[in-house]
Amino acid sequence: xxxxxxxxxxxxxxxxxxxxxxxxxxxxxxxxxxxxxxxxxxxxxxxxxxxxxxxxxxxxxxxxxxxxxxxxxxxxxxxxxxxxxxxxxxxxxxxxxxxxxxxxxxxxxxxxxxxxxxxxxxxxxxxxxxxxxxxxxxxxxxxxxxxxxxxxxxxxxxxxxxxxxxxxxxxxxxxxxxxxxxxxxxxxxxxxxxxxxxxxxxxxxxxxxxxxxxxxxxxxxxxxxxxxxxxxxxxxxxxxxxxxxxxxxxxxxxxxxxxxxxxxxxxxxxxxxxxxxxxxxxxxxxxxxxxxxxxxxxxxxxxxxxxxxxxxxxxxxxxxxxxxxxxxxxxxxxxxxxxxxxxxxxxxxxxxxxxxxxxxxxxxxxxxxxxxxxxxxxxxxxxxxxxxxxxx
Length: 392
Known about the structure:
392 residues
């Protein structure tokens, strides 16, 4: 595949709309897809709003990989419907790979080490607006999987996408081409290619993770995963790269850096920033919902039962044509959020129906409590705890 020429895009002196930028990228061979954008308050334009783990960094389209396009008519239609949408680029379908360097997680140090070990790599660069850098490189037809080359450097290969130039970062800065960088996408040097195809570096398996403990947990927690814990705890779910906010209360994780280990079937993770590691039980314990594994199992079982009861009650009400009850006497979810210091507004709750539905079903059974360093989470109310312990 011919190298992508960045010259025409770097020398655009007049401001262009996102639609025009998407068309320019597509004309150069980049497969693009509309991506959610960050709002002025740094929340995401998606339905989860302020609770989104990746504001302005995930696609509008569910089947984004297949629907990424270079077709001008399709791009015109998409960005006419979504004029503020950020621009996502699907590297592999564009014949590229992108090296994503994140200095907040040690990317600059890792990059310097790789240059020393593998040789220089001069390529067009996009400054991300958040302090990171994207290097665009011609894949040369090689099938390079999504993975990592070390702390702070992700390989955006097959089945991945990056936010492209012209898009808005949640910091308020734009993603833009570094005009001092090379203008043509270079072919990937063999030393770098071998490193990316190395299974140890191409697969994001957290080092030092105890897989045996996760296997043992399966006998206690069944198929329960970390994403189940996040849902029950009313925390933001895994993002599109299987990262979530680190539960370690001593780590102020502003950029989700805890990664679910692909070998753990969703039941174990490690934080690439602070080194925290653990399975389902440890996540529950670290979040303050249990003191040991047995308590964690009970906590999960209780939430699973209550979630099933709530969903069944909703189904019965829907079949009978009755609007779900809101239990106004116990206080609305918006009132509970205000009482607990949650900054989310009623509008934000309305944009997250699944979260709101679950909270409404728990009115009277749950109370909002603040967990150190995080937004409000839920635990059984005093009345429920007293009932379970036999007190009256």
